[in-house]
């Protein structure tokens, strides 16, 4: 079967309507059209699902909340179960050519996902919506093919449906399942992969002097239809769902900043005290710099460094005293010494953010881990030289994999390799007040935050004391 889309044949105009040469197909729901465009961008342009979805939803402001919710569920659902769905379809279809056309692929997978996992969509509606959309995108022949496949899948679903957890776990690449099992055990790996809610709520990070209860009340007053509640892991976190653009809420940029709860917990674990000098060594746009600079107050200072100077411009407005462009893999650049504390929020696989960024599972590969692990060690060793003797460093990643967590700690705690800076890094217990609230065992120098345990994205953080 060769798929030639209506667009290929010039029957679809720029706006997506069927032109005079084509017969008007029954309309596809707005939610499915949005989700199909987002999925196509993820597959074809390597777009991030969340950003592509945001862009589509803000372009179509007329889309009501229910449709936006369905589009979101379809995008995340299909990406999390993609391999499972494609295997099921492959068993029912001789040809795999459907996978070559993104619109056909998206509607076929959304139809399959709806049949297997969406109780609120009746089977006949799931099939006809997908078939109509595929007919419009390709032609009647491809529509008939999709109809046959989805009807057979509907018959199979009537006899028994898989659990979403099984489908999500089966869709994770084998290397990732293996790496997760090595890190957190078989049950932990399944719980991690299946952890919801998907997508998770947005996090706000309150400045240390602000009262959380008062802000929850104030934000609810400003956005009465939203769900707004205190976070669990970070005492500074407020979790928000359904409030629209956060920047329109009171207090943005002054009393609070948008920041995922696990990310702010990592910043808090550095334990910065008023008056201290702190270096945010991989600061990016300064999300953590903002909180750190409020912790140290006007008597202290936070400097921000990163390999990308353009990101650092934003870090400056987040409260950095000074910024330094530096590639820590090759040295220390112009970054001064003598900091009381250094945060190394190192580049990583990002596997910890899987429930927020499901496309990571489709893009990362096993060999990335070795490269990233080596880079993390080099970056942390160079950044550690910037502490004062006896100062502290937190190494953190938004990953939960052993290779990027304990394995890095082991290498950092060992003797430096040839050419590596000769600092002595000793794991030491966290000294941040927030560590106790997190349930970190007394004396522990490392912690893994997990979505199914802490409700945050997955992170790892380890504290060291540094001697020169
Ligand atoms: C996980 S991100 C940290 C993001 C930031 N701390 C935040 O909270 O948004 C890792 C950062 O490390 C930076 N980076 C990557 N390789 C680097 C290197 N060799 N030297 C310095 N910075 C590097 C990246 O540009 C990125 O901003």
Automatic annotation (TrEMBL):
Keywords on this record?
A: Methyltransferase, RNA-binding, S-adenosyl-L-methionine, Transferase
Q: Name one GO molecular function term.
A: RNA methyltransferase activity
Per the record's keyword annotation, is Lipoprotein included, yes or no?
no
Indicate the residues that form the catalytic site: 398 (nucleophile)
GO terms (BP aspect) = regulation of DNA-templated transcription; RNA methylation
The record ties this protein, via SUPFAM superfamilies, to: NusB-like, S-adenosyl-L-methionine-dependent methyltransferases
Query: Signal peptide position in this chain?
Result: none
Record region (Disordered): 1-29
Q: Which residues form the SAM-dependent MTase RsmB/NOP-type domain?
A: 192-467
List ligand-binding residues for S-adenosyl-L-methionine: 306, 345
Here the segments flagged for biased composition (Low complexity) are 12-29
Record family assignment: Belongs to the class I-like SAM-binding methyltransferase superfamily. RsmB/NOP family.
| Protein name as catalogued | SAM-dependent MTase RsmB/NOP-type domain-containing protein
Q: Which organism is it from?
A: Chondromyces apiculatus DSM 436
